[in-house]
Design a protein that fits this description.
219 residues
């Protein structure tokens, strides 16, 4: 779940349109593909968002980013965007000189749902608690260096050490599925990042700018 804030209630229509269309997975992919070149420049610090091979490699590879590769990655995008809510709050803000501003602000709360491919395997193996533990463990550990893979052998060892003692059956489930589960978590987080920063923020900006220009021309 994430949040955005906006200072002008009159732009709610523009914001609503971006959110409504954002539920269409194909619409998001088309937008990302059409803006691949600009996104490579705007999100240059987040290289893995544009690497279609990131989730296959055991060790990170330093390959040049290309528009073609970025579009291949965008084609892998899967939407988990399931809705939003909007509410207004009154806030006070200070600028760099200490001047105070009072402003009514719109807050948009985004809702995403993670669904694991390994749910049935965990159910059959009676290891639902292990799956849940791996999911929460991997989602909460995002402060890694760019060279570190969340599905590495070192990460798996760290996970097993932190959760001792292990029943043999559950330890076997970890050995068999840890890498696959953490890979899907990493891709889910990156898909959310693509949606929020690659699509939604840009659409908000475009729609609000268009509406603002229309208002200025009408005045």
């Amino acid at each position: 779940m994430g949040k955005f804030t906006f200072p002008k209630e009159r732009y709610q229509g523009a914001i609503f349109d971006a959110l409504r269309h954002g539920h269409d997975e194909g619409e998001v992919i088309r937008y990302l593909r059409d803006n691949a070149k600009d996104l490579l420049q705007e999100l240059t610090e987040h290289k893995r968002l544009f690497d279609p091979h990131y989730y296959d490699a055991t060790q990170p590879k330093k390959l040049p980013l290309t528009v073609k590769g970025a579009r291949q990655r965008f084609d892998m995008y899967k939407s988990s965007f399931k809705g939003w809510s909007v509410y207004s709050v009154d806030g006070v803000f200070f600028d760099q000189h200490g001047k105070m501003y009072e402003e009514a602000t719109q807050v948009v709360r985004l809702m995403f749902r993670f669904e694991s491919f390994f749910t049935n395997q965990a159910l059959v193996a009676k290891c639902q608690d292990v799956l849940r533990s791996i999911l929460f463990w991997s989602i909460s550990r995002q402060a890694r260096l760019s060279e570190q893979k969340p599905w590495s052998r070192a990460a798996q060892t760290q996970f097993t050490e932190e959760h001792k003692p292990w029943p043999k059956k559950k330890l076997g489930f970890v050995g068999q599925h840890f890498a696959g589960i953490t890979r899907e978590v990493a891709k889910w987080i990156d898909d959310v990042g693509l949606f929020v920063f690659g699509y939604l923020v840009r659409k908000f900006s475009e729609n609000v700018l268009t509406e603002r220009l229309y208002e200025e021309e009408s005045n």
